[in-house]
């Protein structure tokens, strides 16, 4: 297959803005530096509330990593059929196993065109927030320490307490409670 063509069209570019949870999710992977080497964090953000609905960490950047994040999001949210799932064109998201899982869950795949990073702007903004709040202030001695502190930051602080101007200064969890 021609790798210059995305496996899924970029449906995010023409999608209306999310007006409720579980309409549009964006997935991406970031790198966390530790003294034991890189730790990879895959995340799935709900574009409506900016809540991180699924995530996983691994010492390997592979399809299993993104599948674990997706499994968590599906379990936590039980989204309707036809949710739009947008990612970049990383090989992990383009893999047969990942595409099959999206189809089985009834999700509609969308992928950025080559060199079109702005599609993932909200996700990039989330990674920046996480790294400013946590990662850049730490020197993680181990993968274990990084995993523990990142878990706490996402679940206890980011999703539940950190307010966003774009959400009228509610946290993602409170924004969803207020509006649904």
Keywords:
180 residues; alpha/beta; five-stranded mixed sheet; 6 helices
- Please state the oligomeric state of the protein chains shown: single chain
What is the CA-atom radius of gyration, in angstroms? 16 Å
Shape, per Cα inertia axes: globular
β-strand percent reads 15-25%
The count of strands amounts to 5
Biggest sheet features: 5 strands, mixed
> Which residue ranges are poorly predicted, with pLDDT under 50 across at least 5 consecutive positions?
none
Q: N- to C-terminal separation?
A: 43 Å
Order of helices and strands: EEEHEHHEHHH
Class derived from helix and strand content: alpha/beta
* Helix count, DSSP H or I runs of 4 or more residues: 6
Strand line-up across the major sheet: 3-2-1-4-5
Helix content: 25-40%
Task: Give the averaged pLDDT, no decimals.
Answer: 87
Question: Would you write up a description of this structure?
Answer:
By secondary structure, this protein is of the alpha/beta class. Helix content is 37%, strand content 20%. The chain contains six helices and five strands; from the N terminus they run E-E-E-H-E-H-H-E-H-H-H. Strands 3-2-1-4-5 form a five-stranded mixed sheet, with helices on both faces. A hairpin with a 2-residue loop joins strand 1 (24-34) and strand 2. Helix 1 (63-77) runs parallel beside helix 3 (96-105). The longest helix has 16 residues, at 143-158. It is globular and about 40 Å long.
């Amino acid at each position: 297959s021609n790798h210059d063509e995305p496996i899924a069209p970029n449906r995010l570019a023409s999608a209306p803005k999310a007006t409720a949870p579980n309409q549009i999710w964006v997935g991406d992977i970031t790198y966390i530096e530790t003294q034991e080497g890189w730790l990879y964090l895959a995340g799935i953000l709900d574009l409506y509330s900016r809540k991180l609905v699924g995530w996983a960490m691994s010492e390997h950047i592979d399809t299993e990593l993104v599948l674990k994040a997706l499994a968590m999001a599906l379990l936590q949210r039980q989204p309707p059929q036809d949710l739009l799932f947008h990612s970049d064109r990383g090989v992990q998201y383009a893999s047969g196993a990942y595409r099959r899982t999206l189809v089985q869950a009834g999700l509609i795949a969308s992928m950025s065109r080559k060199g079109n990073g702005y599609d993932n702007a909200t996700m990039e903004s989330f990674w920046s927030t996480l790294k400013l709040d946590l990662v850049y202030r730490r020197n993680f001695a181990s993968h274990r320490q990084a995993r523990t502190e990142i878990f706490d930051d996402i679940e206890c602080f980011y999703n539940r307490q950190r307010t966003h101007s774009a959400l009228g200064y509610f946290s993602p969890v409170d924004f969803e409670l207020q509006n649904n």
